[in-house]
Amino acid sequence: MAGNLYEQGYLDSGTASVTQGQTLVTGQGTNWLQIVRPADDFGKHVGRPIPIASVDSNTQLTLAYPWPGPTQAAADYRITFTPYHVAYRQALQEIGALLASGGVSALAMLEGSAGKLPFFTGPGTMGLANLSDFAGDVVGPLGAADGGVALFDGATGKLLKNGGVLGSAALQPYETGFFTSTLSGLAVAGSPTYVQQQGSYVQIGKLTYVTVYLVVTNLGGADGQLLIGGLPFPMASGTVKRPLFHSGFWTGFDLGTPYTMWTGFMLSGNTVRLYRWSQTSGTEPLNAAQVTGTVTVYGNMVYEAA
After folding, report:
1. What is the pLDDT of residues 269-278, one digit of tens each?
2. Measured between alpha carbons, how far is 89 from 50 in angstroms, rounded to an integer?
3. Are residues 228 and 162 in the same domain?
């Protein structure tokens, strides 16, 4: 149907209402949205064609200028199609205005080649530079523990062309996993009997969050201060970096008077030493001698890995 309409050059199906001095045209039984375009003319049925500014819906148009009259209600109308080449001419003028700055023509004049980077040398002028002047390989120590992709070379400031791993300049990796947690003695490790010895971790860069779930029915000869081990990464060195282990649920310890709680303290490596605490006596090692039955520990900690 649309093809036949374009051949005849106008549309007059349905009726239209418009008020003198207004720009809004309302259609009855019309289907304007897919057929009529801005710049088509409304009003030739009374010899007063007015350009259409927008096609708002199948039953509404907005004219570019107020309707000079006469007012009509649900009356015959005619929309005359504007030839496509008229719209193309305007579009070409707009494209030409956009290209007037010379940027596109300056780029078109360049003869590109491998390893070259276009850049502006002035208004409307461009040149080519060697990409190697602005990007380079990683300079500095590499290590699998970094596990990231460097964006900039820390030594030269250049954008890295091959990516890689580069200390503080690396994107920090994200890693999750599981480990086997253990409970042992400092003096004698022993051979404990486990029901549960679970562990999980989340690591972003060197920041490591671990959870531990242990159920031990027999220490198997372990003696001395109790240790939780098996953590996935050793801690970073430095007294101020020693982290605390917190247990939200536990059983099997008789802390003794006046001790009211216990905690873990990571001094070095990947092992947590356990201590009992009281407000009056401070801390003392939590030893195998304080175990009175099945030990259950469910806790967590955050620390900086080496």
Report:
1. 999 999 999 9
2. 20
3. no
